[in-house]
Amino acid sequence: MVKDHGKSIKNDEKYEALRDKGMSKERAARISNDPNSSKKGGKASDLDERSKTELLQEAKKIGISGRHKMTKDKLIDAIRNH
Description:
The protein is mainly alpha-helical. The protein has 2 domains: about 45 residues, no CATH class; about 35 residues, no CATH class. It has 4 helices and no strands. Helix 3 packs parallel to helix 4. The mean pLDDT is about 80.
């Protein structure tokens, strides 16, 4: 039975599956609340294909500090490992 995590989690089943895989609460919540994510991956474009401006917007959205000083490769790494 899936536990109800309240209004802050939109997809409790996906959240629990991600937590069981070892993801942090913050990352599991972000993924489970994203309407573009699915069981086999999200619809987001490959990070390597995005412009630095797009990467900066994504980094801001997920709260990465120091993002403006990062190179494109560092931004990609920070986003993937956040």
